[in-house]
Amino acid sequence: MRFLGLDLGSKTCGVAVSDPLNLTAQGVEVIRRKEENKYRRTLARIEELIAEYDITGIVLGYPKNMDDSVSKRCLISRDFAEKLTKRTGLPVTLWDERLTTVAAHEVMLEAGMSREEREKIVDKVAAVFILEDFLNDFNNRNKTEKEL
Q1: Which of 15, 68, 79, 119 allows an S-S link to 28, with CB 3.0 to 4.6 Å?
Q2: How far apart are CA 123 and CA 29, in angstroms?
Q3: How far apart are CA 17 and CA 52, in angstroms?
Q4: For the segment 51-99, what is each residue's pLDDT rounded down to a tens digit?
């Protein structure tokens, strides 16, 4: 069982994958598109990655507002999740991604990366944070169930 983590932006999609033991997440790439609502190539690339990494589940960032309300981007993410499920047949988990992009920028700033370098990979790093958060929860739930 391996998971694919996605950070869907207006014209990008950051991608991360879990290791085979679901302990860590590694950034893979940023899928770019020219138009905001054109997902055909993005979905095709995601299908290729699913086959390449033998993915069994997808975790998609769900950008709620800080007050826990649903944003316009949440509605876009829900729509994209439906497209993913239809196209891949895999379950898609919407995962709260508040502040992941901010955290990604902070980590890259601490690493001394320039603004230009950060902009190229920020979505990939955010996808790693989304997937790592999901994996921590997933592993904690599984640990608790085994203890019962």
Answers
A1: 15
A2: 9
A3: 11
A4: 999 999 999 999 988 898 898 999 999 999 999 999 999 999 999 987 7
Strand runs labelled E in 1-148: 3-8, 12-18, 25-32, 57-62, 92-96
* CA distance readout (Å), 20 to 23, 55, 117, 139: 8, 10, 29, 13
Look up residue 56 and give its two tokens: 């069994």
Residues 6+ apart with CB under 8 A from 21: none
SS3 assignment, position 5 = strand
Q: What is the DSSP letter of 15?
A: E
Residue whose C-alpha is closest to residue 130's, from 2, 16, 10 = 16
The burial class, CB within 10 Å (0-12 / 13-18 / 19+), for 54 is exposed
